[in-house]
Design a protein that fits this description.
184 residues, mainly beta, Immunoglobulin-like, 30% strand, DUF3426 domain-containing protein
Length: 184
């Protein structure tokens, strides 16, 4: 406890008196221990009897949980790990079937003409990816061209015809390679 501070007056001197210690544990207690009175407001907080066996999730709980986990895996990219047999839809088999290339000169300008066809050997309609044309010169220089197809649908068994007129590289043309660009 703190005493009030008096301004301007000296502090009183306090004498120390010996203290007497009483050990309560050795004396027998005649009074009964205090029992709290039950309050109906706090009845919810009292211990409730627990069932003897803990209930675990049933079959429906585990099936729903595993379905959610598998769906999250599949949506976040797991479908790319699945082999083609599990892929949805039928396999698409687009391939270059035939290509002709030639150099023509008109009014002093050389033009590389590339004509060809791509075939859908799959069992369903497929969108045609862009066509990549690689021209290699006699000196080893490589020039890349891309022919847009606007993802035109090609029915199963049908052909996609394409034709392109390209500028001839300065060194000339040694070889022409035509491939389908992979889907991005």
């Amino acid at each position: 406890m703190t005493a009030a501070v008096r301004r301007g007056l000296p502090k009183p001197v306090v004498e120390v008196v010996n203290a007497e210690i009483i050990d309560v544990a050795d004396e027998p207690s005649s009074a009964p221990p205090l029992q709290p009175r039950p309050n109906p407001t706090f009845a919810v907080l009292q211990n409730q009897p627990q069932p003897k066996t803990a209930q675990r999730g049933g079959m429906l709980f585990w099936t729903a949980g595993l379905t959610l986990i598998a769906s999250a895996f599949w949506i976040s990219g797991g479908h790319t790990l699945a082999p083609g047999a599990f892929a949805m839809g039928s396999p698409v088999k687009l391939a270059i079937a035939h290509v002709e290339s030639r150099v023509q000169t008109h009014t002093g300008h050389s033009t590389l003409m590339v004509d060809g066809e791509a075939r859908n050997d799959g069992t369903s309609v497929a969108a045609m990816p862009p066509i990549a044309i690689t021209v290699t010169g006699p000196d080893g220089a490589v020039t890349h061209y891309t022919l847009s197809t606007n993802a035109q649908p090609v029915a199963a068994g049908d052909l996609y015809l394409f034709s392109s007129r390209l500028r001839v590289p300065p060194g000339g043309v040694k070889s022409v390679a035509v491939t389908l660009k992979p889907a991005e």
